[in-house]
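DM from R.C. (forwarded with permission)

"hey, sorry to bug you on a friday — could you get me a structure for this? deadline for the figure draft is monday and I only need the backbone to look sensible"
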Amino acid sequence: MKVTFVKPRHELEPYIESFWVLESPNGLPASDSSIAAPNGCPKLIIPYDNSLVSIADGKVQHSYEKRLYFVGNRDSSTLLKSSPRKTGCLVIEFSPHGAFPIFGIPMAETFNGLWEGNAVFGNWSRSAEEVLSTLEGVDQKVAYIQDQLTFLLRRRDRRNGIVEYCVQSLKSTDGRVAIQDLAQQVGYTRRYLNVLFKEHVGLSPKVLAGIFRFQKFYRHWATGQSFDLLKDDLYDHYHDQAHFIKEFKKMTGYSPRRFSREVSNEFGRRLLRQ
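My reply, with the result:
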């Protein structure tokens, strides 16, 4: 299994967290727990060889090859599987607020869901699927989808500076900014901030802050650090150990101890090593 990261074009960089290509001669390893943990990023997924199976909140869904799919922001994990044959997939992870300015779709409508592109984007998705299916090389597919996202951005570009500031504040502090303080900083009520976030991000500032807190410790795990070595830091982010365990289990489906001992998730590690 190989994960190759693509540098987004300059115009798209403020809206894209990461852009990567997954390639494997034998699909996702059956021995690996391929878990996609919440990271605050909605995603555009384009399987071009083989189909993917996702299991989230007890629901099984298929993402068929040569189709386009959108994954809204999630607050729980997704388990990924595939059949054991040649597999290729393009994945664009937008910044938490990056999909709305490009697509103009209220992100709350996509929360915790995997959607066929045709159902969300209509004619644009159908046209993109047709063109992508005729392009042979991965580089051609990458260039085409960047062309399309740039076109959509120039046509819509519904950026919101308040949302961008708040997302950056939450991210830079690993979710440790009090939401009431954040609302006061930007001069809006907490209630109005929730409304803005639901439209632009798909979830509330409080939920996004929780994801950023979790991601700090999840990234430590990806580098091989034991959660036991992070206990002192843990209390700067969570009320107590029980709070951390509860949040971690919600994000991964496992307690931190079980996760570190029983879950390989090489797929998840590679996504965090960019």
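R.C.: lifesaver. The chain has a mean pLDDT of 90.
me: no worries. Residues 2-155 form a domain with the Jelly Rolls fold (CATH 2.60.120.10).
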